[in-house]
Amino acid sequence: MKTSIDNYYYQNAGQARAIANVLGYQESFNPETKSLTFSKGDISKTYSLQELKQGSQLPDRENILEKSRENLVSFFDKERATNNFDEYKAELLRDNNIAIVKWDNIKGNQNDQNSDGFTIIDLNNKISFTGADFYKYAFENNHLLNGQGEKLDVNWEALNAVGIDHNKLTEQEKESIARGEKSELKGLIIDDNEQNRKYLESEKIDYEAKDGKLHFQAKISTAKEIEVENTPQNKKKLKDENIDFRETPDNKLKIQDKVSLRKLVIGAVLIISPIAGIALMMTPKRNEIKQSNDNSLKLNKKDIESLKQGNIITKNNSKNERVVMQIDKDTNELVTVKAKDITIPNKIGGVVLTPAQKESLSKGYEINLQNESLNKTYSVKLDLNSKNGIDIKDNTKIKEEVNINRTQGKENTTPEQKVEKAEQSIKSDKVQEETVKEQKKENTTTEKQELSKDNNKSISNEEDKKEKTDISKEYKKEVENYYNKSEKSNKGLKL
Length: 495
Prior knowledge:
It comes from Capnocytophaga canis. The protein has about 500 residues and is an alpha+beta fold. It has helices spanning about 15-20, 50-55, 60-75, 80-85, 85-95, 105, 130-140, 170-180, 195-200, 230-240, 260-265, 300-310, 355-360, 395-405, 415-430, 430-455, 460-465, 475-480; strands at about 25-30, 35-40, 45-50, 100, 120, 125-130, 185-190, 210, 215-230, 245, 250-255, 275-285, 315, 320-330, 335-340, 345-350, 350, 365-370, 375-380, 390-395, 495.
């Protein structure tokens, strides 16, 4: 028998329960069979928890999700959702057919520690998604969420000062840059004077002097700023979340660091404030890697060679925090991210990750995933230069594309050839090969342990998004903050 729940897009058991709750279904849990039964009137259907955790398998989810989020940002008021939740929730349901279910409504426990712990259900489009996902989408696309559908735009005319005609940028380029993504290399032009030459040379930036101007290349991106009231309460919350901030002369707390912003906006920490401004940034092309100011992160020759091959390396900084590093091959920019600030998703390519697999990814190892329902395997590794911080490759597709590119005789020009080079490097490095094998063995062992543990979990543990596990002492400190909402840093020069 089919229930109305089967017509909805959901990603996990919690969202399925939220949908059932809104649609008026009663639920009962059978601890022996690990199953949930939803019933309403004469309709009743039982689902295994494993089935619900896999989410609905309806097609075209991404397009429906985009349509739903675009509609929601046009009227959603984040301040009202935070400060007057019950009244605003009723209004959204009445006027927009949008239901919001807080986790404490279906779990029976208070959720004061996570103000975005709710599920949004679009009853018109029959799709559900988390509040955190929605806030992330709005933040990345510069929506103010002020109830008026307004967005904060970039002052594109500022690019004229460095010789870029913003009118020649495509709309797609502008949208990408406005989201904080880096552009392709652009030609920049500044005045030829002693001060500018000295700066470019000290930063080891390649340039050409021509017709009284200095020409160099850089990638363009943006950085957002958020301001909150300078109160002891806000300071404490920011410090508790390890969010960097500075105090301004007009008695505000300003946050610009990209990782901190993502923690603040997505994690919410009960501080709700619109984006205060968007600054255009540039990352210049250097002729060599610029070393970190932190002596503990200084690179030796072996580190530099590994980075140039596209690998990720890790070091401990002066505060004994694990730092993950990679370079942008186009600019030689050194991208550094604290390991605790790396977000490892629960699911990649439709496959739920084990704690050991997440651990391996955070350490810079490549893992292999198999989606049995799609009969596909994926190679996954961190990529600090990509939009999502994760590089996912379809193994079958990679093999075909690498073979094609081998016949073209081009070197270091495509992502596929970079993959081929990385594969060759792994083959020649037996130590790395053995390490990867050990990681795979550990993943297999942990998967079996997880299956065993699953038989003893209660329903509340099944729904817990931040699953707890007993991992090795060696890595425990490094992975205890997997679920911090964050993004790789994107440092550059402010225009």
